[in-house]
Write a structure and sequence with these properties.
Radius of gyration: 12 Å
Helix content: 25-40%
Order of helices and strands: EHEEHEHE
Number of helices: 3
Distance between the termini: 23 Å
Shape: globular
Strand content: 15-25%
């Protein structure tokens, strides 16, 4: 089982880069303000390799974000299921 990283910050916060450096081979779920990063085609998120990148759909919709590239989005129910499939779960606040 790989780790699930919950990221709610944009690149302006130190937690963003710390999360990306810890993420190879794991899963990142973008939530809250982190979904703003999806609009930037040059975001380091799009250059991650070996990392599953997901985003919380209600946060994308609430912020009116149009992702620059294809992204797998999850409902709240999917999010709960995802937490049962990963260990550990790391929150980057």
């Amino acid at each position: 089982m790989n780790a699930l990283h919950l990221l709610n910050r944009t690149h302006a916060h130190p937690a963003f880069n710390q999360c990306l450096s810890a993420a190879p081979g794991n899963t990142i779920l973008l939530m809250e303000d982190a979904v703003y990063e999806l609009q930037d085609a040059n975001s380091p998120l799009w250059r991650l390799t070996g990392t599953r990148l997901l985003a919380l759909e209600p946060d994308i919709l609430a912020r009116g974000v149009t992702p620059a590239n294809a992204i797998e989005s999850l409902s709240y129910d999917d999010f709960v299921l995802l937490t049962t499939q990963h260990c550990p779960i790391v929150s980057w606040y």
